[in-house]
Design a protein that fits this description.
single chain, DUF4143, nucleotide-binding, 404 residues, 2 domains, 18 helices, globular, ATP-binding
Length: 404
Amino acid sequence: MRDFAKKNYKHVVYLNFFENPDYCSVFEGSLEIDNITMLLSALLGSEAVFEPGNTILVLDEIQECPDARTALKFFHLDGRYDVIGTGSLLGVRGYGKEPKSIPVGYETTIDMSPLDFEEFLWANGISEVVIDSLRKNIRGVTPVPAALHKKMRQLLLQYTVVGGMPEVVQTFVDTKRLDEVLNMQRDIVRSYEDDMIKYANQKDKSHILECFQSIPKQLSKENKKFQYSVVKKGSTASKYAGSLQWIEDAGIISRCYNLTATELPLDGNAQDDVFKVYMRDCGLFISMLEDGTQFDVLQGNLARYKGAIFENLIADMFTKMGRKLYYFHKNSGLEVDFVIRYKGACTLVEVKASSGNTKSTKTILAHPEKYHVNSAIKLGDYNVGKSGEILTLPLYMAFLLTEV
């Protein structure tokens, strides 16, 4: 954000309300723009130059100064200066200090995710030309050349353990030292846990931590449906649902909802109370597991838990491209990892850490009159091809499934 401001504006006025709580006093009285700019000029001296059309005001950690968020409306109406505010999701979603008035209609909200796999590829020197060539392989159902296929498989495994937190990715690109990567990731996880203590109500703090720390156990089960009894023996939704919602609002997890039917619109067939939970960043998920897991992922030595890791990887990719997550499970034994809208059709997506069978997918495709599905994709450790009616793609191509 600061880099963008410096590149696009003649003058940048930067305030960080967390580092300097005294800045909040500027917004405690009149929110008339001339008054605010006058006080900032007095407070910051030569660092605060307000030139109409050429100045941007950057309000960092804006959740620490709710009145500054209210002031966004008046900056918008005044129109002389552009403003960017940044804050934690928790801080601006009602878990922190409340502003006197939320500037509805006067602010554009952008939720920032960690880097997605495509951005990770850019960071590691993979050009748009290469990515476009992979798109052509999908469209033509032609195998990726062996050398590129090997390189992309390697980068995918690296992304699985590194994830997309910007500072973590930069450290990996600069040093290739996974021990440093792991230490940074665990620091981030600890900061999440600190936020849980900072923003949560006293009575909810332990429940939130228990929900968060149960995620690896939830995904290790054969049936990965989130179960409150796994959080703590005898626990129920009435006791823990609010805590899980808190973690989701913090942008840490994504829910994947079970469908009652494999039909469009998917959201209309989703069960709100039956879902799986994935970490929004696969690298942070790996860091929550025991030491040595990074090495095991890179070597492919994960046995049964490999499926959970690669499912979380695909959930990471789909979530960061803006897809809501759905799956299909019936007590009869039918289960498909993900269901997406792709090229205007309801499409099954199976994630295979090894060769694996696709019995459920084949059963559903064999009965289109019952399940209303005619297309399926299998993602795994192989090249582009067709297996009967199923399009087979390497796992690293999941980020290219953008057509809805």
